[in-house]
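Support reply, case 0932

Customer input (verbatim):
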Amino acid sequence: MNDVAGARELVVVVSAEVDDDLVGDMTEILTGMCARLCGKRAAANRAKCAITAAAADECEAA
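Our regenerated output:
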């Protein structure tokens, strides 16, 4: 019996579409990362980090 599944082949007709998908995915990833660094949540996270750091400095100074 011949192995039919092994004889199959994938042919990409429009290769530009693959590049567009990769560029789109990378854009989404970078946008998400930048939003976390510079967005509304970033200000709250920086404030929380500053309070934690200040509290840690007070403990070390005492």
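We compared this against your earlier run and they match. Two observations from our side: The helical segments are 15-38, 40-61. The chain has one domain: 15-61. Please reopen the case if you see a mismatch on your end.
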